Amino acid sequence: MPTVYLKPGKEESLKRFHPWVFSGAIATLEGKPDEGDVVDVYTSRREFIAKGHYQIGSIAVRVLSFKQDERIDREFWMRKLRAAYLMRKAIGVAGNPTNNTYRLLHGEGDNLPGLVVDIYARTAVMQAHSAGMHVCRMEIAEALSEVMKEDIDNIYYKSETTLPFKADLFPENGFLKGGGTDNIAVEYGLKFHIDWLKGQKTGFFVDQRENRRLLEHYAGGRSVLNMFCYTGGFSVYAMRGGARLVHSVDSSAKAIDLTNRNVELNFPGDERHTAFAEDAFKYLDKIDDRYDLIVLDPPAFAKHRDALRNALQGYRKLNVKAFEKIRPGGILFTFSCSQAVSRDNFRTAVFTAAAMSGRNVRILHQLTQPADHPVNIYHPEGEYLKGLVLYVE
């Protein structure tokens, strides 16, 4: 097996079970691994410390095991997937008759870096974020079928936009099992069209499930603005919560169409909802104080740390506009899904925006991703979703 030897002292993070080996930590590479091959990792003193998928790039090895005798084979994938499934059953998201939409496997959070699996009713959508997971996709799909048994009929592979383009992997989206076209899934009793063919991520933002449910609690009698609405998830929950009116805004006409379809699916003919295909900042510039509940759930402003400064400026600018426009006594749900933006970074950006607006603001809730998006205690970078619920006087 190809072997990676680390520079002196570079094994310390692996001793703490961090699942990444950065390229700068590597002293030598013996053998000629292809991208996606499994490699052994040794310290500078020739002591085994981990094994994982090799890839050219900043993160050179994504660790699969810290055990030298553990084979990366079908039984390995079965064990990992079964452990993930049992955890989802234990927390009540799998096997819940009112909810068949959840994340079955969450990369590093489930000790399989580079792999995501979301469940939408009878379909599992599998997404690879590393060359290694792409290479192993068929083995993983077979293990997934065995673990889920009668719970799923279809496995759709959706990795064309998530794999490193330099690896020459030529991924193609498509069904690895089945081919069903029923794309309606249920989340806490609400129905949603899931666009796993062309939609963002795996077709739906599963990570906002509990935060959508919280918004439902606050929506009664309020005028709600859902910015960056995408599938309209927050809008649908607001309507069930008794909102007086709901406006959904997204720059994408396709997102607006999907939002309207999801609203119609749950509340046919309901005139409380209107959707607008428009730039978020331009929309906020022109509105008056008609809203007393605003949701800001933008796409990631920072894909990497080099973009952090501009991202924080973007969060400040966006939240200042919301603070300026929201009615007295209004509630603001504001989020960042940028992994490069820390919880403290985000809070500081929002607090600065509040001060710039001159409004009195109180924190009601501090939000994060739900339990089916677990954070590996040895990989704190996995806590990517940050949110605040704020009361604005």
Describe the structure.
There is one protein chain. This protein has 393 residues and is an alpha/beta fold. It has three domains: 3-65, PUA domain (Archaeosine Trna-guanine Transglycosylase, Chain: A, domain 4, Roll), CATH 2.30.130.10; 74-188, 2-Layer Sandwich (Transcription Regulator spoIIAA); 205-392, Rossmann fold (3-Layer(aba) Sandwich), CATH 3.40.50. 28% of the residues lie in helices and 27% in strands. The strands form four sheets. Strands 16-15-14-17-18-20-19 form a seven-stranded mixed sheet, sandwiched between helices. The chain has a six-stranded mixed sheet with strand order 2-6-5-4-1-3. Helix 2 packs across helix 4 (137-148) and helix 9 (308-325) packs across helix 10. The longest helix has 18 residues, at 308-325. It is globular. The mean pLDDT is 94.
Top-tier CATH class of the largest domain: Alpha Beta
Strand content: 25-35%
Number of helices: 10
Largest sheet composition: 7 strands, mixed
Number of strands: 20
Q: For the largest beta sheet, what order do the strands appear in spatially?
A: 16-15-14-17-18-20-19
Choose one word for the global shape: globular
The total tally of domains equals: 3
Low-confidence stretches: none
CATH architectural arrangement of the largest domain: 3-Layer(aba) Sandwich
Helix fraction, binned, reads 25-40%
- CATH superfamily caption of the largest domain: Vaccinia Virus protein VP39
- Structural category is alpha/beta
Give the CATH topology of the largest domain. Answer: Rossmann fold
H/E element order: EHEEEEEHEEEHHEEEEHEHEHEHEHEHEE
Distance N terminus to C terminus? 63 Å
- Specify Rg, calculated over alpha carbons: 22 Å
Average of the residue pLDDT scores = 94
